[in-house]
Amino acid sequence: MRTRLAVAVLVVFAGNVARAQTQDLGHKTLGTVGLDAGTLQETGLYAVYALGAYRSDRIFDRTGARIPLDIDASAFVSLFGISGSYELPRLHTWVSATFTAPVARVSLSTDDPRASLDRFGFGDIYAEPLQLGWRPPRSNVIVAYGFYAPTGRLEPGGRGGVGEGQWTHQLSAGGTVWFDKGRRWKLSALFSYSHNERKLNLDLQRGDSVQIEGGAGVKLARVVDLGVAGYALWQVTDDRGSALPPILAGARDVDYGLGPELDVTVRSLRSKISVRYTHDVVAHSRPFGSLVLVAIGVSVWGAQ
């Protein structure tokens, strides 16, 4: 039974951490969106560079009980992304697009070497070819379509890439509300539905999921945003395929987490620096861990 649990850890970790901790600007990654989850960008072209570190030493089963297996799991990611936004004045509509590509290292050590892995390489790219947005009074509203393409190499276990070897389609809708005329206090949220296609070289298809990312914060001295970021995920369909270990049949991911966020705007450099720490508070069928993310966004053209 212990060996079967170890193999299950490998599948769950590779499916939820190697995947989830290697994207940003795409909200498949829990904990990487935060206070600006449902906020529109001003017209312009932006470049983003981010560094993230994830760590977990526990994994939980489908009931939320800890699996009695010693693990040391970590993921480090470096990524670059670009995004652009343009206002269609007569329609009072903003059209945006985003592209991002990560490089990551993911490692997992357990007391059973058959369930250990060490991966390094390019992850799956994220592209959001279309986002539409509107600005009612004291609020933003957005809808979007994005996808993750299997550009990262996938190898079961051992050393290899950190890609998932599958296409994932994502539909999103959300917004931001400001509670005062000065737009100091805000609440932002983004709801997403992710559909995973069958893996390219493996008879395995991950179940679909629904998630919420967002946060509540306050602007201080016009250049500092301070608040709490949070997330929730529910897997809504089962994993399936002949490659799915029987012990994982019917198991569905559930995850809730939150943590502090600090954003600082540096107007002289046309940039914004974000620091976020999030930690799981509930986890089912997945690792239980924390994520630290530091990102800098630069306005290359347009808004300052």
Question: Could you characterize what this model shows?
Answer:
With 304 residues, the protein is mainly beta. 6% of the residues lie in helices and 56% in strands. The chain has a twelve-stranded antiparallel barrel. A hairpin with a 4-residue loop joins β5 (125-134) and β6 (139-149). The longest helix is centred in the first third of the chain and has 17 residues, at 2-18. The model is unreliable at 1-27 (pLDDT under 50).
Structure in a nutshell:
By secondary structure, the chain is mainly β.
Residue share in β-strands: over 45%
> How many strand segments?
13
- Spans of 5+ residues with little confidence (pLDDT < 50)? 1-27
The CATH C-level name is: Mainly Beta
- The helix-and-strand class reads mainly beta
Instruction: Give the overall average pLDDT.
Output: 85
Shape: globular
Major sheet strand order: 1-2-3-5-6-7-8-9-10-11-12-13
Can you tell me the CATH architecture? Beta Barrel
Please describe the biggest sheet, giving its number of strands, its sense, and whether it closes into a barrel. 12 strands, antiparallel, barrel
- Kindly give the count of domains: 1
| Span between termini | 58 Å
Structural Rg: 19 Å
